[in-house]
Amino acid sequence: MNYETKIDAETWSFIHKTGEYYPPETLTYTVAQQREIYDRMCRVFFQGYPKGVNASDHLIGTIPTRHYKSSHSPATVMYFHGGGFVVGGLDSHDDVCAEICDRTGLEVVSVDYRMAPENLHPAMHEDCLTATKHIIANTDAPILLAGDSAGANLAATVAAVLRDDPRLIGQVLIYGGFGGDLNEGTFMEHANAPLLTRDEILFYEGIRYVGGKRPKGDPTATPLDDNSFAGLPPSVIVSAECDPIADSSRLYHEAIQAASGRSIWINEQGLVHGYLRARTTVKRATDSFDRIIQALSALSRKEWPY
Q: What was the pLDDT predicted at 70?
Protein backbone atom coordinates (compact mmCIF):
# COMPACT_ATOMS: atom_id res chain seq x y z
CA MET A 1 0.00 0.00 0.00
CA ASN A 2 1.45 3.36 -1.06
CA TYR A 3 0.46 5.61 1.81
CA GLU A 4 2.65 8.46 0.58
CA THR A 5 0.08 9.34 -2.07
CA LYS A 6 -3.08 8.15 -0.31
CA ILE A 7 -2.47 10.18 2.89
CA ASP A 8 -2.24 13.96 2.56
CA ALA A 9 0.37 16.26 4.08
CA GLU A 10 -1.81 17.42 6.96
CA THR A 11 -2.48 13.85 8.04
CA TRP A 12 1.21 12.95 7.72
CA SER A 13 2.01 15.87 10.01
CA PHE A 14 -0.42 14.45 12.57
CA ILE A 15 1.09 10.97 12.20
CA HIS A 16 4.62 12.29 12.71
CA LYS A 17 3.60 14.38 15.72
CA THR A 18 1.97 11.32 17.28
CA GLY A 19 5.12 9.32 16.62
CA GLU A 20 7.22 11.84 18.54
CA TYR A 21 5.39 10.80 21.72
CA TYR A 22 4.34 7.26 20.80
CA PRO A 23 7.36 5.35 19.47
CA PRO A 24 6.85 2.33 17.18
CA GLU A 25 8.51 0.00 19.71
CA THR A 26 5.88 0.81 22.35
CA LEU A 27 4.52 -2.77 22.29
CA THR A 28 7.80 -3.94 23.86
CA TYR A 29 7.20 -1.77 26.92
CA THR A 30 5.30 -2.74 30.05
CA VAL A 31 1.58 -2.00 30.14
CA ALA A 32 2.21 0.68 32.76
CA GLN A 33 4.72 2.35 30.43
CA GLN A 34 2.33 2.06 27.48
CA ARG A 35 -0.41 3.77 29.47
CA GLU A 36 1.91 6.58 30.47
CA ILE A 37 3.00 7.10 26.85
CA TYR A 38 -0.57 7.04 25.55
CA ASP A 39 -1.84 9.49 28.18
CA ARG A 40 1.07 11.85 27.55
CA MET A 41 0.51 11.68 23.78
CA CYS A 42 -3.22 12.36 24.15
CA ARG A 43 -2.50 15.34 26.37
CA VAL A 44 -0.34 16.90 23.64
CA PHE A 45 -3.46 17.09 21.47
CA PHE A 46 -5.74 18.27 24.30
CA GLN A 47 -7.91 21.20 23.17
CA GLY A 48 -9.46 22.22 26.48
CA TYR A 49 -13.16 22.67 27.17
CA PRO A 50 -15.43 24.88 25.10
CA LYS A 51 -16.93 27.76 27.04
CA GLY A 52 -20.09 26.77 28.88
CA VAL A 53 -19.31 23.05 29.20
CA ASN A 54 -18.97 21.77 32.76
CA ALA A 55 -17.74 18.34 33.78
CA SER A 56 -17.89 16.47 37.06
CA ASP A 57 -16.68 13.03 38.11
CA HIS A 58 -19.00 10.44 39.66
CA LEU A 59 -18.87 6.80 40.65
CA ILE A 60 -21.51 4.44 39.32
CA GLY A 61 -20.99 1.70 41.85
CA THR A 62 -17.23 1.25 41.52
CA ILE A 63 -17.05 2.56 37.92
CA PRO A 64 -15.54 6.05 37.50
CA THR A 65 -17.45 8.26 35.07
CA ARG A 66 -17.22 11.86 33.92
CA HIS A 67 -20.42 13.78 33.14
CA TYR A 68 -20.39 16.71 30.70
CA LYS A 69 -23.35 19.06 30.81
CA SER A 70 -24.47 21.93 28.65
CA SER A 71 -27.53 24.18 29.09
CA HIS A 72 -30.23 21.75 27.99
CA SER A 73 -29.86 18.16 26.92
CA PRO A 74 -32.56 16.30 24.97
CA ALA A 75 -30.57 13.03 25.21
CA THR A 76 -27.54 11.48 26.89
CA VAL A 77 -24.52 10.11 25.03
CA MET A 78 -22.76 7.20 26.71
CA TYR A 79 -19.16 7.48 25.49
CA PHE A 80 -16.66 4.62 25.69
CA HIS A 81 -13.02 5.53 25.03
CA GLY A 82 -10.57 3.79 22.74
CA GLY A 83 -7.18 2.32 23.59
CA GLY A 84 -7.25 -1.37 22.72
CA PHE A 85 -8.96 -2.26 26.02
CA VAL A 86 -5.55 -1.64 27.61
CA VAL A 87 -4.80 2.11 27.62
CA GLY A 88 -6.80 5.32 27.88
CA GLY A 89 -9.36 6.64 30.33
CA LEU A 90 -11.36 9.69 31.31
CA ASP A 91 -8.49 12.07 30.56
CA SER A 92 -7.42 10.63 27.19
CA HIS A 93 -10.76 11.53 25.59
CA ASP A 94 -11.68 14.43 27.84
CA ASP A 95 -11.75 17.19 25.25
CA VAL A 96 -13.46 14.98 22.64
CA CYS A 97 -16.35 14.39 25.04
CA ALA A 98 -16.47 18.08 26.02
CA GLU A 99 -16.66 19.11 22.38
CA ILE A 100 -19.40 16.58 21.63
CA CYS A 101 -21.37 18.05 24.53
CA ASP A 102 -20.81 21.61 23.32
CA ARG A 103 -21.61 21.07 19.65
CA THR A 104 -24.63 18.79 20.10
CA GLY A 105 -26.08 20.21 23.31
CA LEU A 106 -26.26 16.64 24.61
CA GLU A 107 -25.12 15.44 28.00
CA VAL A 108 -22.15 13.08 27.69
CA VAL A 109 -21.21 10.38 30.19
CA SER A 110 -17.70 9.02 29.70
CA VAL A 111 -17.07 5.61 31.27
CA ASP A 112 -13.71 4.55 32.74
CA TYR A 113 -14.24 0.81 32.37
CA ARG A 114 -11.83 -1.81 33.71
CA MET A 115 -9.02 -2.75 31.34
CA ALA A 116 -6.72 -5.65 30.52
CA PRO A 117 -4.52 -7.30 31.55
CA GLU A 118 -5.61 -6.72 35.15
CA ASN A 119 -9.22 -7.38 34.17
CA LEU A 120 -10.01 -9.72 31.32
CA HIS A 121 -13.10 -9.94 29.14
CA PRO A 122 -16.00 -9.55 29.92
CA ALA A 123 -15.08 -6.97 32.60
CA MET A 124 -15.02 -4.09 30.09
CA HIS A 125 -18.38 -4.98 28.60
CA GLU A 126 -19.93 -5.45 32.04
CA ASP A 127 -18.81 -2.00 33.22
CA CYS A 128 -20.14 -0.25 30.12
CA LEU A 129 -23.43 -2.12 30.34
CA THR A 130 -23.78 -1.42 34.07
CA ALA A 131 -23.08 2.30 33.62
CA THR A 132 -25.56 2.54 30.74
CA LYS A 133 -28.30 0.73 32.67
CA HIS A 134 -27.71 3.08 35.62
CA ILE A 135 -28.14 6.18 33.46
CA ILE A 136 -31.27 4.74 31.85
CA ALA A 137 -32.71 3.99 35.29
CA ASN A 138 -31.91 7.40 36.74
CA THR A 139 -32.69 9.84 33.93
CA ASP A 140 -35.67 10.48 31.69
CA ALA A 141 -33.65 11.29 28.57
CA PRO A 142 -33.18 8.82 25.72
CA ILE A 143 -29.75 7.25 25.30
CA LEU A 144 -27.21 7.26 22.47
CA LEU A 145 -24.17 4.99 22.48
CA ALA A 146 -20.86 6.19 21.07
CA GLY A 147 -17.20 5.28 21.18
CA ASP A 148 -14.01 5.03 19.20
CA SER A 149 -11.84 1.98 18.51
CA ALA A 150 -12.21 -0.39 21.49
CA GLY A 151 -14.96 1.91 22.74
CA ALA A 152 -16.93 1.43 19.53
CA ASN A 153 -16.75 -2.31 20.08
CA LEU A 154 -18.05 -1.84 23.62
CA ALA A 155 -20.88 0.41 22.44
CA ALA A 156 -21.97 -2.27 19.97
CA THR A 157 -21.89 -4.97 22.66
CA VAL A 158 -24.08 -2.81 24.91
CA ALA A 159 -26.45 -2.13 22.02
CA ALA A 160 -26.83 -5.87 21.44
CA VAL A 161 -27.93 -6.43 25.04
CA LEU A 162 -30.22 -3.38 25.24
CA ARG A 163 -31.67 -3.53 21.72
CA ASP A 164 -35.23 -3.94 22.98
CA ASP A 165 -35.10 -0.92 25.26
CA PRO A 166 -37.09 1.95 23.66
CA ARG A 167 -34.85 4.47 25.43
CA LEU A 168 -31.90 3.40 23.24
CA ILE A 169 -32.29 5.53 20.11
CA GLY A 170 -29.00 5.19 18.24
CA GLN A 171 -25.30 4.45 18.15
CA VAL A 172 -22.35 6.22 16.51
CA LEU A 173 -19.29 3.99 16.19
CA ILE A 174 -15.91 5.41 15.20
CA TYR A 175 -13.17 3.20 13.69
CA GLY A 176 -14.27 0.24 15.81
CA GLY A 177 -13.23 -3.38 15.86
CA PHE A 178 -16.25 -5.67 15.65
CA GLY A 179 -14.63 -8.90 14.52
CA GLY A 180 -13.85 -10.41 11.15
CA ASP A 181 -11.09 -12.60 9.76
CA LEU A 182 -7.70 -11.13 10.65
CA ASN A 183 -6.15 -12.96 7.70
CA GLU A 184 -8.04 -11.27 4.88
CA GLY A 185 -9.29 -7.95 3.53
CA THR A 186 -8.12 -4.72 5.11
CA PHE A 187 -6.57 -6.63 8.01
CA MET A 188 -3.91 -7.71 5.52
CA GLU A 189 -4.11 -4.84 3.03
CA HIS A 190 -3.44 -2.32 5.79
CA ALA A 191 -1.45 -4.60 8.10
CA ASN A 192 1.28 -1.97 8.43
CA ALA A 193 -0.84 1.16 8.35
CA PRO A 194 0.33 4.24 10.25
CA LEU A 195 -0.87 4.46 13.89
CA LEU A 196 -2.40 0.96 14.02
CA THR A 197 -0.90 -2.25 12.68
CA ARG A 198 -2.17 -5.80 12.54
CA ASP A 199 0.55 -6.81 15.02
CA GLU A 200 -0.78 -4.26 17.49
CA ILE A 201 -4.30 -5.67 17.08
CA LEU A 202 -2.98 -9.17 17.80
CA PHE A 203 -1.11 -7.87 20.87
CA TYR A 204 -4.19 -6.23 22.32
CA GLU A 205 -6.35 -9.28 21.62
CA GLY A 206 -3.74 -11.52 23.20
CA ILE A 207 -3.91 -9.82 26.58
CA ARG A 208 -7.66 -9.13 26.65
CA TYR A 209 -8.96 -12.68 26.78
CA VAL A 210 -8.55 -15.68 29.07
CA GLY A 211 -5.93 -17.85 27.44
CA GLY A 212 -5.03 -15.08 25.00
CA LYS A 213 -7.54 -16.17 22.35
CA ARG A 214 -10.72 -14.48 21.17
CA PRO A 215 -13.72 -16.53 22.36
CA LYS A 216 -15.90 -17.93 19.59
CA GLY A 217 -19.57 -17.10 19.39
CA ASP A 218 -19.47 -14.43 22.09
CA PRO A 219 -21.11 -11.20 20.88
CA THR A 220 -20.12 -9.43 24.12
CA ALA A 221 -16.55 -9.76 22.85
CA THR A 222 -17.07 -9.68 19.10
CA PRO A 223 -20.31 -8.08 17.88
CA LEU A 224 -20.07 -9.81 14.49
CA ASP A 225 -20.42 -13.15 16.29
CA ASP A 226 -24.02 -12.35 17.23
CA ASN A 227 -26.67 -14.73 15.89
CA SER A 228 -29.06 -11.87 15.15
CA PHE A 229 -28.67 -8.22 14.20
CA ALA A 230 -32.37 -7.49 14.26
CA GLY A 231 -33.67 -4.73 16.50
CA LEU A 232 -30.41 -2.82 16.82
CA PRO A 233 -30.79 0.96 17.06
CA PRO A 234 -30.10 3.21 14.05
CA SER A 235 -26.34 2.98 13.53
CA VAL A 236 -23.83 5.39 12.04
CA ILE A 237 -20.58 3.49 11.52
CA VAL A 238 -17.46 5.47 10.67
CA SER A 239 -14.10 3.97 9.70
CA ALA A 240 -10.73 5.22 8.48
CA GLU A 241 -9.67 4.04 5.04
CA CYS A 242 -6.01 3.46 6.03
CA ASP A 243 -6.78 1.21 8.97
CA PRO A 244 -6.57 -2.59 9.31
CA ILE A 245 -10.01 -2.76 10.95
CA ALA A 246 -11.90 -0.82 8.28
CA ASP A 247 -13.48 -4.06 7.01
CA SER A 248 -14.82 -4.70 10.49
CA SER A 249 -17.01 -1.60 10.22
CA ARG A 250 -18.18 -2.58 6.74
CA LEU A 251 -19.14 -6.09 7.85
CA TYR A 252 -21.03 -4.84 10.90
CA HIS A 253 -22.91 -2.34 8.75
CA GLU A 254 -23.80 -5.03 6.22
CA ALA A 255 -25.03 -7.36 8.97
CA ILE A 256 -27.39 -4.69 10.33
CA GLN A 257 -28.69 -3.89 6.85
CA ALA A 258 -29.23 -7.59 6.10
CA ALA A 259 -31.43 -7.72 9.22
CA SER A 260 -33.49 -4.79 7.82
CA GLY A 261 -31.98 -2.33 10.29
CA ARG A 262 -30.99 1.27 9.71
CA SER A 263 -27.25 1.63 9.20
CA ILE A 264 -24.85 3.77 7.24
CA TRP A 265 -21.14 3.11 6.79
CA ILE A 266 -18.83 6.08 6.17
CA ASN A 267 -15.28 5.08 5.24
CA GLU A 268 -13.23 8.25 5.63
CA GLN A 269 -10.80 8.46 2.72
CA GLY A 270 -7.11 8.96 3.47
CA LEU A 271 -7.56 8.94 7.24
CA VAL A 272 -5.88 6.73 9.81
CA HIS A 273 -6.85 5.12 13.09
CA GLY A 274 -7.03 7.61 15.95
CA TYR A 275 -7.80 10.64 13.80
CA LEU A 276 -10.18 12.18 16.35
CA ARG A 277 -7.11 13.79 17.90
CA ALA A 278 -6.52 15.55 14.56
CA ARG A 279 -10.02 17.02 14.30
CA THR A 280 -8.78 20.63 14.62
CA THR A 281 -5.61 20.35 12.53
CA VAL A 282 -6.46 18.04 9.60
CA LYS A 283 -9.30 19.07 7.28
CA ARG A 284 -10.28 15.50 6.49
CA ALA A 285 -10.54 14.78 10.23
CA THR A 286 -12.42 18.06 10.80
CA ASP A 287 -14.94 17.10 8.13
CA SER A 288 -15.34 13.64 9.61
CA PHE A 289 -15.87 15.00 13.12
CA ASP A 290 -18.51 17.33 11.69
CA ARG A 291 -20.29 14.28 10.28
CA ILE A 292 -20.07 12.56 13.67
CA ILE A 293 -21.57 15.59 15.40
CA GLN A 294 -24.34 15.78 12.79
CA ALA A 295 -25.08 12.09 13.27
CA LEU A 296 -25.38 12.38 17.05
CA SER A 297 -27.56 15.47 16.71
CA ALA A 298 -29.88 13.85 14.16
CA LEU A 299 -30.20 10.61 16.13
CA SER A 300 -30.96 12.55 19.31
CA ARG A 301 -33.98 14.00 17.46
CA LYS A 302 -34.89 10.51 16.21
CA GLU A 303 -34.16 11.59 12.66
CA TRP A 304 -32.49 9.47 9.96
CA PRO A 305 -31.13 11.81 7.26
CA TYR A 306 -29.23 9.15 5.30
A: 75
